Amino acid sequence: xxxxxxEKDLEDGAWKRSNLETEASxxxxxxxxxxxxxIVGQDTLVYLNKERYCPIAPPAMKESVIMSFCQLDxxxxxxxxxxxxxxxxxxxxxxxNGETVVEDMRLEEL
Length: 110
Hints:
Layout: E1 2-4, E2 9-11, E3 26-29, E4 37-40, E5 45-48, E6 53-56, E7 66-73, E8 76-81, E9 86-96, E10 99-109
Antiparallel strand pairs: 1-2, 3-4, 4-5, 5-6, 7-8, 8-9, 9-10
């Protein structure tokens, strides 16, 4: 979806994904050169862009409610849960044909 401010209405956007977790509560923007977003759900993290769909369900997510994030660099994010625990989210990259893409993700408790 995208917001049409002139018409004050919602329109279909460039991306569409129908199998996301219904309890998803946060969208983390991923800047270029990777681009895309990380969608934070109750039990999962999903990296998504036009071509890639990369879900993970780390065990630490079952005990946490992620409340905030901070981007550390192009491929690392700091996440915090409601009880004050900190996590590092790593976007694992692969370069093929001169293009860098997210191949996998890892969530580590700090």
